[in-house]
Amino acid sequence: MTLNPVCENVETSEGVPLTVTGVAQVKVMRDDKLLEAACQQFLGKKQRDIQNTILQTMEGHLRAILGTLTVEAIYRVSFYLFHQL
After folding, report:
1. How far is the C-alpha of 46 from the C-alpha of 28, rounded, in Å?
2. Which of 51, 45, 50 has its CA nearest to residue 24?
């Protein structure tokens, strides 16, 4: 599933507001415990609801990461951000 996280007006560690967009491919891992957790979380939900839940979670993690970095660090290591989600 492809998702497009968007974080608008997120403050960096220096208080500079940024808008950041991205693209992420997500899937459920084959680990039995993770698969069971995904089933419990999403069983019976519509695909749109599942996508929204995952997208909101990803955007929250992205905001948290951006809040710890300077503007320069974000531009320098932007590829790193999506590996942390």
Report:
1. 16
2. 51
What CATH class does 2-83 carry? alpha beta
Share of the chain above pLDDT 90, in %: 78
Q: pTM of the full predicted structure?
A: 0.81
Cα torsion through 20, 25, 30, 36, rounded to 10: 60
Report which of 72, 62, 70 is spatially closest to residue 14, judged by C-alpha positions: 70
Q: What is the pLDDT of residue 81?
A: 56
The enclosing H or E element of 65 equals helix 47-66
Backbone angles phi, psi at 3, to 5 degrees: -125, 155
In order, the DSSP letters of 38-50 are HHHHHTT--HHHH
Q: What is the DSSP letter of 23?
A: -
Q: What band does 28 get if pLDDT is binned at 50, 70 and 90?
A: confident
